[in-house]
Amino acid sequence: MRASGIQNGGSVLGGVSSADAEQARRTWDGGVLLALQSSVELCNTVGSGLASSASTAPDSRYSGISAFQQRPFAGALNGYIFNGYKRLAKQLPYSGTAFALGYGVYYWASSKHEYLNSKAGHIEALKNGTAE
């Protein structure tokens, strides 16, 4: 854009005459109007097809949705079987180590608790002087 066009006549188009600019504006407005009319006709066509969907005959004016929209998860499970296994196997050293450590602490505490609440545990506590 040239600044001189805006200063000289207020036209954004620069060196284009105002008559040409007016013709371009009318053409653009006509295109917008034509597109608007087309979209209204399309809505009416689809709307009438949906309104008459009780009949068993398919509406030839409405072609339906694409195959990509009908099956959005096609192949998702098949892809996860192989890729998911590979991803889980890569994380196993990290998550497996934490799980093993947690289970070891749980097993130790559970065994110690059972022993301390048994007869042998009470006798040991009395010998050591830690019985309550």
UniProtKB/TrEMBL annotation:
Main location: mitochondrion
BP-aspect Gene Ontology terms: mitochondrial electron transport, ubiquinol to cytochrome c
InterPro entries: Cyt_bc1_su8 (IPR004205), Cyt_bc1_su8_sf (IPR036642)
Quaternary state and interactors: Component of the ubiquinol-cytochrome c oxidoreductase (cytochrome b-c1 complex, complex III, CIII), a multisubunit enzyme composed of 3 respiratory subunits cytochrome b, cytochrome c1 and Rieske protein, 2 core protein subunits, and additional low-molecular weight protein subunits. The complex exists as an obligatory dimer and forms supercomplexes (SCs) in the inner mitochondrial membrane with cytochrome c oxidase (complex IV, CIV).
Name listed for the protein in its UniProt record: Cytochrome b-c1 complex subunit 8
Membrane topology: Single-pass membrane protein
Domain of life: Eukaryota
Keywords: Electron transport, Membrane, Mitochondrion, Mitochondrion inner membrane, Respiratory chain, Transmembrane, Transmembrane helix, Transport
Keyword Protein transport annotated: no
Similarity comment: Belongs to the UQCRQ/QCR8 family.
Subcellular location per the Swiss-Prot or TrEMBL entry: Mitochondrion inner membrane
Alphabetical list of Pfam families matching this protein: UcrQ
GO CC terms: mitochondrial inner membrane; respiratory chain complex III
Biological function: Component of the ubiquinol-cytochrome c oxidoreductase, a multisubunit transmembrane complex that is part of the mitochondrial electron transport chain which drives oxidative phosphorylation. The complex plays an important role in the uptake of multiple carbon sources present in different host niches.
